[in-house]
Amino acid sequence: MGQRGYWRVLATILLAYAAIIALADAVAGSVVRLALLGYLLWEAWQLGGRPRAWSRHAAWLGSVLALVVVAVVAREAPATTTSGVVGGVSLAFTTAIIALFARAIIARRSVDTAAVLGVLSVYLLLALFFASLNQLLASFNPEGYLDGVVGRPTAADQLYFSVVTMATVGFGDITPASQVARAVTVVEALAGQLYLVSVVAAVVGLWRRRT
Questions:
Q1: pLDDT for 20-32, tens place per residue?
Q2: pLDDT tens across 52-69, in order?
Q3: Which secondary structure element, helix H or strand E, spans residue 146, and what is its range?
Q4: End-to-end CA, the chain
């Protein structure tokens, strides 16, 4: 995938952010979110050069099956269960996408604009990874997972909290309420900062030298 492909990836991630913020836990929002993640998974397969046809088809088939499962669960199960399923599926997709992106960036063996866009995309995906993890875990403790929200935290709440945590902004309007939430928050804050000061800083530094 060339530089144009990485721009598509970055734009798709931002669209996923916008869908989560605008539509939160609405069924339409969950469908759009998973569809965009499915597209990202397909794009991630292209990063390795010439992926086998079956792997690309598997990415699309997995995305379609995930959408069907979410649609059925949303129709038959309570909102809390649906939110947990969406969070779990998003977590699985995001984990696979990050792994494929990381492998492809390392395999490039050169630092160019595409590599910089790649590491920035992974950073945004990390925030989405922890938001999905929190959404999944919150489904087991809807009222006591986060403080600062009314009732069960929505997908938009989880993404906002994840981004604020990773950026170490420290607004304090939403805070972890359970020990599990505190543990995830600590890991995310450390992972986000370590990724910025090591991977992103190193890649951008090498890129600037080349340019």
A1: 999 888 888 888 8
A2: 555 556 666 666 766 676
A3: strand 146-147
A4: 21
DSSP structure class, residue 52: -
Q: Six-digit token pair at 58? A: 């598997």
- Measured from the Cβ of residue 31, the count of other Cβ atoms closer than 10 Å reads 18
* 0.70 surpassed by pTM: yes
Three-state DSSP at 122 gives helix
SS3 content of the chain, % helix, strand, coil (to 5): 80, 0, 20
What's at 130, amino acid-wise? Answer: F
In degrees rounded to 5, what are phi and psi of residue 172? 85, 5
Write 193-198 long-range contacts (CB < 8 A, 24+).
193/168, 195/122, 195/123, 195/126, 196/123
Q: What is the spatial distance between Cα 206 and Cα 211, in angstroms, rounded to a whole number?
A: 9
